[in-house]
Amino acid sequence: MTHTLRAAAFCGAIVMGSASAIAADPPGHDPHAWSYEGATDPSHWGELDPGFFRCATGKLQSPVDIHGATPAHLPALAFHYRPTRVKVANTGHTIEVRPAGAETLTTASGTYRLAQFHFHTPSETRFNGKAYPLSVHFVHQDDKGRVVAVVAVMFRMGKPNPQLATLFRTLPKPGAQPVPMPGRVNIAGLLPKSHHYYTFPGSLTTPPCTEDVQWYVMKQPLTISPQQLAAFRSRYPMNARPPQPLDGRAVQSGG
Ligand SMILES: [Zn+2]
């Protein structure tokens, strides 16, 4: 299937004149493009590229619907997030914030660098089948650059979040250069006061759906105003992968 599609695209380029066809591609065009709706939606991700096979066949996929979690005595998460300069990028799939500083998270298994954080609407994680309007994912890498820990924070409707007011003020369009924010952003302001969490083994929620990612879903939601949610949805009306089967994984609850 993938082979046929690629061959057809290649032939089309020859007929149209390869130079002009390539030049017509928008900046950042990916021939294995994936999306949240239409012919390349999450149900097809595993077919779009051989490297995406885990999206279809993985047994530790994220997001999940959390229900019947097992109470456990879990170690506290230590966030070392300080006010820092950031750039805001539009990846074509989400709004992604890249800190310039060395922000880290320490879990029971180690200390990891915050590479970026980004947003999904509605929240990808569900709770007894229900989603929140928005979530943020803090993506942490080990010293080899592998994503090993993702922290998810939910937003419910309510008062505006001061940090989002800064970050969502000027949302770049897809393909635009990342926008440096003036001053420093208090990233810790995107964490709830309570650090109680659910945890389970999972994956990236976007292709290539790489596994061996430990998830930490914070229990206490923050708030977002209707105007802030509308600002995000003006760029991305829906960018959430549906829940994936737990396949026997235990979700632990504690913190
Ligand atoms: Zn995410």
Secondary structure topology:
Elements: H1 2-16, H2 18-24, H3 45-48, H4 53-57, E1 65-66, E2 70-71, E3 78-80, E4 86-90, E5 95-99, E6 104-107, E7 110-120, E8 126-127, E9 130-131, E10 134-141, E11 147-157, H5 162-167, E12 179-180, E13 197-203, E14 211-218, E15 222-224, H6 226-235, E16 252-254
Parallel strand pairs: 1-8, 2-16, 11-14, 11-15
Antiparallel strand pairs: 3-6, 4-5, 4-12, 5-7, 6-7, 7-10, 8-9, 10-11, 13-14, 13-16
Helix pairs in contact: 1-2
The structure holds zinc ion.
Residues 118, 120, 137, 205 line the site of zinc ion.
Structure report:
By secondary structure, the protein is α+β, with helices and mostly antiparallel strands. It has a single domain (60-254), classed as Carbonic Anhydrase II, CATH 3.10.200.10. 18% of the residues lie in helices and 31% in strands. The strands form 2 sheets. Strands 2, 3, 4, 5, 6, 7, 10, 11, 12, 13, 14, 15 and 16 form a 13-stranded mixed β-sheet that branches. Helix 1 (2-16) crosses helix 2 (18-24). The longest helix has 15 residues, at 2-16. The chain starts with a helix and ends with a strand. Mean pLDDT is 89; it is low at 1-27. Zinc ion (ZN) is lined by residues 118, 120, 137, 205.
